[in-house]
Amino acid sequence: MTLLQDPANKNRYKVNLVPAANGLNVRTQIPFYSPWRVFFFADNAADLAETMLLYNLNEPCKIENTEWIKPVNYVGIWWEMHLGISTWAMTERHGATTENMKAYIDFAANHGIDAVLAEGWNKGWENWGEKDAFSFTEAYPDFKLKELAEYADEKGVMIIGHHETGGDIELYERQLDSAFALYQSLGIHHVKTGYAGPTPDGEHKHGQFMVNHYNLVMQKAAEYEISLDVHEPVMFSGLCRTYPNLMTGEGVRGMEWNAWSEGNMPSHTCIIPFTRGMAGPIDYTPGIFDIDLSAHKEDREKWNSEDRGNTAVHATLANQLALMVVLYSPMQMAADLIENYEGHEAFSFIENMPATWDESIYLDAEIGEYIVVARRSGTTWYVAAITNEEKRDIAFIANFLNEGKTYIARMLYDSPESHYENNPEDYQILETEAQQLDGFNLKLAPGGGAIIVFEPD
């Protein structure tokens, strides 16, 4: 379902059911219950972002045993392909090799990262766009899946599997049971799916055919104790409550656009929590430290026609860290190459970051301008702030802290010289004591951000 704006009255919208290839909007049996149509109203933007209305309109959890559903922070073999450093297909620059994967697993084990993703591990990428291109059970010869699953388990690291369908729904559904059964046999409980290709002839992403498919995959994944991160999804609708293995999804112009196009401006991420974010968790894949993408410039090869050779992440490093808190995802990727993290003092903020939260409070926000959010995990609070292309002073009082307790506040924020265009990687770190009614004033650079961790002393 989508909404159509009335051209004669821009404040009026009409429900638009996306038709199937046969022209029918909906095919069902009677009696049936139509889904909720939801509009959100709030006195201010911060209250709007906090609402759980959409979740609560869905049915309670239908999965009896949820012990296997575990939120994770992860790194992985992904960003290097978007940069053109390596390839998904098996070439001399193939990214998902056993050697590369072991390096990522070692890094994750050494830095307290929960999981590692590998895209391009399975046969078929060289046939992109063709019918029946992919196998979801056969690995390329240079990627030893069973060996890597055992190696990761020994290191206490989880593997995130990957299924890119290329939009070939029939092929994926044919292999779905065998593909999930393979991962289950190897102790792999997280899978990222992708639909970066055309849907079957006459069908549309938000039509009933594709909605039924996404729901089938979600339910089938639950049978095999697999949690999903769905890219190119149908719009989320709160089903995470009924099937909490539907952990997160994309459905947004994400980080990869910064690797091979004009990219996303800072205001973009100041809008997402009030649009796509209202529908559920977002796998935006933030956390880039090599902001100007210069660290591996000589290793890059152009692969996307939108790449004009001047790509960059339009944010400061402090903004990239803050996005990992602002944009909620219980499968949260630190997306940069691990060599850009190794030995970097700012990475300590990612090492200890929770993958999910016990409580969230939006302290202040204006849509498209700035966001300040506080999130709690156990007794530790994180505050993150981001701004658009304008520099900004953000003031807040830490009234969410426990009365009478002293906290150590560790902060990373933009320096006075920071700017997302010409000095994006400059930042400052400060540690101080804090109590409940202490005030904080954050000076955010254009495209900037800040993150503060409050831990009980």
Compile the SSE list and pairings.
Layout (H helix, E strand, L loop, with lengths): L1 E5 L2 E8 L28 H6 L2 H4 L15 E6 L1 H5 L14 H14 L3 E4 L26 H10 L3 E7 L4 H17 L4 E5 L13 H16 L3 E4 L15 E4 L7 H4 L5 H4 L47 H10 L4 E3 L4 H4 L6 H4 L7 E8 L3 E8 L2 E8 L4 E6 L9 E8 L12 E8 L4 E6 L4 E8 L1
Parallel strand pairs: 3-4, 3-9, 4-5, 5-6, 6-7, 7-8
Antiparallel strand pairs: 1-2, 10-11, 11-12, 12-17, 13-16, 14-15, 14-17
Helix pairs in contact: 4-5, 6-7
For this entry, give a set of tags.
457 residues; alpha/beta; TIM Barrel; Immunoglobulin-like; seven-stranded parallel β-sheet; six-stranded antiparallel β-sheet; 12 helices; globular
Helix content: 10-25%
Strand content: 15-25%
Name the helix and strand elements from N-terminus to C-terminus, one letter apiece.
Answer: EEHHEHHEHEHEHEEHHHEHHEEEEEEEE
Given helix and strand content, the structural type is alpha/beta
Instruction: Tell me the number of helical segments per DSSP (H or I, 4 or more residues long).
Output: 12
Strand tally is 17
Largest sheet: 7 strands, parallel
Structurally, how many domains make up the residues?
A: 3
What is the class of the largest domain in the CATH system? Alpha Beta
Side-by-side strand order of the widest sheet: 8-7-6-5-4-3-9
Q: C-alpha Rg, in Å?
A: 22 Å
Which outline best applies?
globular
Fold-level CATH name of the largest domain: TIM Barrel
Average of per-residue pLDDT values: 96
